[in-house]
Specification:
This protein is 32% helix and 17% strand. The chain is an alpha/beta fold.
Length: 165
């Protein structure tokens, strides 16, 4: 609408390429590495509005693992706040979405996860707490989360959270 003379798809590709090429200053969110190290790789996925190349490039840049399943913008037709991304994420893991716990930092992602039936924990990294109010709970950071898996006795993952509101 702002630039009807521009090729919107080409411009979007140029923006994504610029984001892919810019990894300077990327940092792992506090607690993210520790949480992922405790979770079996087949029990979590990443659901992102970004493209696959952008997501994997950023994960590599900060030394985080690439999960075997990942839902990106190229895997869906309708993005957040539509529930499709989280429905696909749950299906990729083989779970009913109501059995899933989503960590989200954006209001549209919170709405998408809730519409899919998942429980949602908001993390105020890109939006202030007040804009994440639709989450079931808000925590200061992933450093507030500990996970423990007892695969011998119970395949469930126990999540403990401190500092929640």
């Amino acid at each position: 609408m702002v630039g009807p003379h521009l090729d919107a798809l080409r411009e979007a590709d140029l923006i994504e390429k610029a984001e892919i090429d810019d990894s300077e200053g990327l940092q792992v969110l506090p607690g993210a590495r520790e949480l992922l190290e405790r979770l079996p790789s087949d029990r979590y996925t990443i659901v992102t509005s970004g493209g696959r190349t952008l997501a994997t490039t950023r994960l590599h840049a900060v030394g985080l693992p690439i999960p075997p399943t990942m839902i990106t913008a190229s895997d869906i037709i309708r993005g957040k706040p539509d529930p499709q991304p989280y429905l696909r994420g749950a299906a990729a893991l083989g779970f009913d979405p109501t059995a899933c716990l989503v960590f989200e930092d954006a209001p549209s992602g919170i709405r998408a996860a809730r519409a899919a039936g998942a429980s949602v924990i908001g993390i105020p990294t890109t939006y202030p707490r007040g804009e994440l109010a639709e989450a079931d709970m808000i925590i200061p950071s992933l450093a507030s989360v500990t996970a423990k898996v007892d695969v011998q006795h119970n395949p469930a993952i126990r999540i403990d959270i401190s500092g929640a509101s």
